[in-house]
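User: Before I run my own analysis I want an independent prediction to cross-check against. Here's the chain; please return only the structure tokens and, at the end, one sentence I can use as a sanity check.
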Amino acid sequence: MTQYSANHATKRIGLAMPLHLYEKVAAIVGHRGGTINSLIRDLLWEWIEAQERKAADK
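Assistant: Structure tokens:
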């Protein structure tokens, strides 16, 4: 997985989600550690890498 580094330029975005989804995500982060932001960033990197692997397999 691509790792985030403070040396990389970043772009802030806002993310609206239903309260019940937020509560579930917050609970996962509470057990796993870290932040909601880092969890979402990790999930996005994993998804992008999976899409790139799919495209390379075609």
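Sanity check: The longest helix spans residues 36-57.
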